[in-house]
Amino acid sequence: MPVPVRQDLPVRELYPELEANATGTLAADGMHRVYYEESGNDEGIPVIYLHGGPGSGSNENHRRYFDPSRYRIIIFDQRGCNRSTPRGETRNNTTWDLVADMESLRRELEIDTWLVYGGSWGATLGLLYAQTHPERVRGMILRGTFLARQEDLDWFMVSGDNRIFPEAWENFIDFLPEAEQRDPVAAYYRRVHGEDEALRRRAARAWSDWAGTIVTWMLPEITATAVDEEQVLHEVLIETHYARNRYFIEENQILAHAGRLPDVPIHIIHGRRDMTCTLSASWALHRALPQSRLTVVRDGGHLAGEPVMTDALVTATDEMAELLKA
User: Fold this and answer.
1) Is the separation of the CB atoms in 88 and 193 below 8 Å?
2) Topology adopted by domain 5-148+250-325
3) Strand, helix or coil at 163?
4) Is the pTM of this model over 0.90?
């Protein structure tokens, strides 16, 4: 099956800025309150946007990947993230809690079926949701797929990126005593979740610096700005929590249960130069899903905000709107 490869110059940009039509919080349990918002056309195709991380959050630009005249755009911050409270909270915070939150939000908004859009960790979450609630998914757009296998985590944290970014890796791994360097996920988890507040913040910053170097390597160098240490700590608390627990799923769970995914249009988009989540993951998913379409963006990296990736993603949402309308 031929795989489309984007090689043209970027032609599509984000849709113009728009305000949310409504915002709210979902009482997920006795502890967590999940922030969500709606924008676009109330009568349009419902789409749920799943942010990456885990641990980051959504922002106003995430609304702009969708034609607001054709989509009812639903965005939410996952448990402990961004505008959801309590920030950085890892108790009652697992992959399956997030899947349940998505389903609760769907019912709250009285949506029958929706398009699932997710990138990186958001793609992981979207796939697991679709395997759990296939009858509620009418289509999927997935960017930079992360399958959350051991090999995917090892590429980022054991042997892979360290050979491509050795100077950044040295800073990251030298933060730890030599005896703990074989398992940096566990070592950083102990520090970030420990009692020493100063050490927690230093470890969170070291983890964030390493991850940021890999994620942003395709972007132009920018002038360093002040870092919100509290935000960094909250994000890394959740990121290490999920990584340490292997994302709360079985090894290779997504591919092993690919047959549970609904027979709906699925468009997978991946940058060939993505050093965070390698193209091999999206390729494996595409091979497991005969109905899927894979677009490889030749000059694309990991981030949706790279111009060539934005072009591919906005094109995909426009094409999906036409397909689902038909």
Assistant:
1) no
2) Rossmann fold (3.40.50)
3) helix
4) yes
The gap from C-alpha 256 to its chain's centroid, in whole angstroms, comes to: 21
Other beta carbons within 10 angstroms of residue 240's beta carbon come to 26
Antiparallel, parallel or unpaired: β 33-40 and 22-27: antiparallel
Please say whether the beta carbons of 297 and 272 come within 8 A.
yes
Give Cα 241 to chain centroid, integer Å: 15
Active site residue 104: no
C-alpha closest to that of 265 among 211, 324, 182, 203? 324
Q: Is 120 a catalytic residue?
A: yes
Burial class (CB in 10 A: 0-12, 13-18, 19+), 213: middle
Residue 111: how many CB atoms within 10 A of its CB? 15
Per run of 10 residues, the mean pLDDT along the chain (length 326 residues) is: 64 95 96 98 98 96 98 98 98 98 98 98 98 98 98 96 97 97 98 98 98 93 74 98 98 98 98 97 97 97 96 98 89
* Domains in the chain: boundaries: 5-148+250-325, 150-248
The residue written with tokens 């997030």 in the block is 98
* Options 58, 161, 302, 311, the catalytic residue: 302
Catalytic residue at 302?
Answer: yes
Catalytic residue (choose from 58, 120, 282, 292): 120
Q: Among 101, 161, 274, 311, which one carries the catalytic annotation?
A: 274
- Strand segments, DSSP code E, in the chain are 5-6, 22-27, 33-40, 45-50, 71-76, 114-119, 137-143, 266-271, 292-297
| CA gyration radius, the chain | 19
Give the whole-angstrom CA distance, residue 99 versus residue 132.
8
Max Cα distance, the chain (Å): 59
**CB-based contacts of 310, cutoff 8 Å, min separation 6:** 10, 12, 13, 14, 65, 304
Predicted local distance difference test score (pLDDT) of residue 7: 62
Please answer whether residues 67 and 74 qualify as being in contact, where contact means their C-beta atoms are separated by less than 8 angstroms: no
Strands 22-27 and 71-76 come out as unpaired
Output the DSSP codes for 1-33: ----EE-SPP---PPPP---SEEEEEE-SSS-E
